[in-house]
Amino acid sequence: MAGAFAPFTMTIRRNDGDQDLSQIGLDLPPGLLGALGSVPLCGEAQAAAGTCDESTRVGSTTVSAGTGGAPYSLPGKVYLAGPYKGAPFSMSIVVPAKAGPFDLGLVVVRSPLQVDANKAKVAAPADPLPRIVGGVPLHLRMVNIALDRAGFIFNATSCQPMAIGATLQSTAGATVAASSPYQAQGCDKVILDPKLSLKITGGKGEMGKFKHPGVEADLSQAFGQSGLKKVRVKLPVSLALDTAASNKPGALCEPAGAAARNCPDSSIVGHAVAETPALHEPLKGPIYFVRGERIENGQVRKTLPGLYIKLEGEGVPLDLHATSSFTATKPQLLEATFDDIPDAPIKSFRMTVNSGKGGILQSAKGVCVQPKVATVTYEGHTGGSRVRQLEVPAPDCGLQIASASATQRMVTLRVTGIGAGRLELTGSRLSKSTRTVNKADTASIKAIMTRSTRRSLAQGKTVKVALAVKFRPTKGKAVTLKKTITVKGKKAKAKKKR
Known about the structure:
mainly beta, single chain, Immunoglobulin-like, 3 helices, 498 residues, ten-stranded antiparallel β-sheet, eleven-stranded antiparallel β-sheet, 3 domains
């Protein structure tokens, strides 16, 4: 089942008379991973000696050795260990060499676990297998590895046909590549339901016109769901990209620098942290502002700057990239797209784009007086997708009049910075109006103009209406704001001459 825990078993055999097996290297497909974070690591000295604690065991092994029709079968154990030969993790494969009355001690084979987090892939190029133990030639006929610890190995969430690769080398130096088909099943039964919250950050001084608010995004996902392949976030109209920020010297990292994981500190615009069951520790790192470009007809075209998130944890690097663009339809909204996300489970992910001086976001009219609703689109490795709309709260802006409009009969006021409570709209030329708000950051309230005011407008007169809007929260003190609007009367239609 896609995304579910399942044992991983590998068996390699050679016929009697074939060249002896010397070395095995495994290459797992994207998304076929282990919950390393759930298993303690065996210490280096113990891993080398074959004396790892049982708590670090992740599976078992069986090898057959000897010539003729009845080779010896030797059982052993597989343990999870720490860094080895430049890899962040390794396995210690331990087989007691006992055959009848002969006890030749422990045979230990180490295998580094090379992690390519950007592709959610693991490769395991094991050390050379022993040829002779205690003066006895082994002549290995079969090697079986079963990683069967409960809750350890889990399937990819993509159901595309893939393969488990192996590179086999003989004692004579011959090398052969082998593979076995791999395809997870049941992608249509795997749900895609991440939880994302967005909030605008920064002090009150950053909420006004042409200031620089920040954004914090928190994403979480239950294990067993579809891995995220693509996430597109359409930010509220209250947030735009400050393109002038990219013109400052050193403000942008070049694409080549991002590809080499070598961006200047001057291009840092935030930070991020991710937790995954595949690791013991979180991945952490900075967010860089990167020059945007695309190749079109063989030429490099400039685009909006994007983001590069450089994460690392337990020696595992992970790079995430986001492009930015404006929506084609009005109002043109800023859209950030994270593409090519690896098929790995995400327990939580938080990214913070800085506010204040050096911030890359800007609000043309002020955060507090504009709608704060975002739209997020998820695409999963299963092929499923989901669209969600999110309210994006801001720091306590307090009661704000976002807009005021009027017809010849009615005034409509839209206010922000509220919660549960009661709204009241009054004015010198209005009939009092009230409404109850159960839960909202933004609400509208309407009030009918007095009869005399409507008559004046009908006569073509221009009137000024003094408004007072009061919000009485369920808990806390009432707040009142005042505003005067000008309403123009209808122009009388000219009579036709006969």
